[in-house]
Amino acid sequence: MIARRVVVKLGSGVLSAGKDRLDPAVIRRLAGEIAASWGKDFEMIVVSSGAILAGREKLGLKVRPATIQLKQAAAAVGQSRLMRAWEEGFGRRRRTVAQVLLTRDDLRHRNRYLNARNTIFALLRLGAVPIINENDTVADEEIKFGDNDVLSALVAGLCDAQLLVLLTDQDGLYTADPRLDPQARLIPTVGEGHAQARLGRAGPSGSGGMESKVRAARMAASAGIEGVIANGFTPGNLARILAGEPVGTRFLPRTAPMGKRQAWLAFASHPKGAIHVDAGARQALVGAGKSLLPSGVKSVAKTFAAGDVVSLVEGGVEFARGLCNYGSEDLQRIKGLKTSQIEQVLGQKPADEIVHRDNMAVL
């Protein structure tokens, strides 16, 4: 499948060539490869890390900042340096770049989500390359994506991309960590249900590790977007991936992908509370595609209003998210009842369903 719109994610490890500072030569090479793809009917979007690393170098910090305040300060200093490096790299190909900084709040709120989407589309129409990064200067633990791998998967869905390319310092996903196990083998293709089985052997976890790249590729695949994890140090890999050559590990898109609303609920929304349901309700929702009725509700956690996103939980595990038709106070009063009893208790019945199946995403 030829992908017209492609999201390319580049981490600090690739952009620094494994050093403690950004490597201009690597950025120039990657900018050249990305810019060259525009002449072959591809629209390219870049998700770039590196602001904290660039700021850390300028500030003379010997180790990566540990506190959120130091990370924000380093990002504030480094973001302009990162963009200057990209501007110089793409300037050699006479391609304009545009800085787009996002936090999770920008994608949680539907209006801001659509505004970000429309801005990126406008930049693509103008021939500019969006350079997207998390807004580390203002992001705190509550609104952080966690890593730019997750951000890149959300951006791929936001922009209707057909392909997500995650370039890293390894050739792809292996059966074990190749740095520790010489018998580790590269997995060329991951289909539905396969990625989760391999996740525990994907290598080091944590922000930016292989585990987060696998998670991002799976998120994209669930939305119908093909994902590739490949080595960003190998010149020409991006062109080979775009040509459909077997490079790295390909994550095949789901045959029945989530709709846009479901993908937003599953990956970008922020639940305001939780509804604990019984095992029968979970089976009806997951196995039979039913809506949640009050009879299946066991308890309600936190305070939320009608129309808010909530987590659906059974046995202590979140298994779905959805838009709730009732506020937490009313839901406390009607939990466990039959639909026919709602109006008798509340004096009105806004809806039969607590969460309608069309406004729900199974995780």
Give a topology summary:
Blueprint: E1 5-10, H1 12-15, H2 24-37, E2 43-48, H3 51-59, H4 68-91, E3 97-102, H5 104-108, H6 110-125, E4 129-134, H7 148-158, E5 163-168, E6 189-190, H8 194-199, H9 210-222, E7 226-231, H10 237-242, E8 249-251, H11 260-268, E9 273-277, H12 279-287, E10 297-301, E11 309-314, E12 317-323, H13 328-334, H14 342-346, E13 360-362
Parallel strand pairs: 1-2, 1-5, 2-4, 3-4, 5-7, 6-8, 9-11
Antiparallel strand pairs: 7-8, 9-10, 11-12, 12-13
Helix pairs in contact: 2-4, 3-4, 7-9
Question: Please, could you describe this protein's structure?
Answer:
By secondary structure, the protein is α/β, with parallel strands linked by helices. The protein has two domains: 5-259, Carbamate kinase (3-Layer(aba) Sandwich); 271-362, Archaeosine Trna-guanine Transglycosylase, Chain: A, domain 4 (Roll). Helices cover 38% and strands 18% of the residues. It contains 14 helices and 13 strands. It has helices at residues 12-15, 24-37, 51-59, 68-91, 104-108, 110-125, 148-158, 194-199, 210-222, 237-242, 260-268, 279-287, 328-334, 342-346, and strands at 5-10, 43-48, 97-102, 129-134, 163-168, 189-190, 226-231, 249-251, 273-277, 297-301, 309-314, 317-323, 360-362. The strands form two sheets. Strands 3-4-2-1-5-7-8-6 form an eight-stranded mixed sheet, with helices on both faces. A hairpin with a 2-residue loop joins strand 11 and strand 12. The longest helix is centred in the first third of the chain and has 24 residues, at 68-91. The chain starts with a strand and ends with a strand.
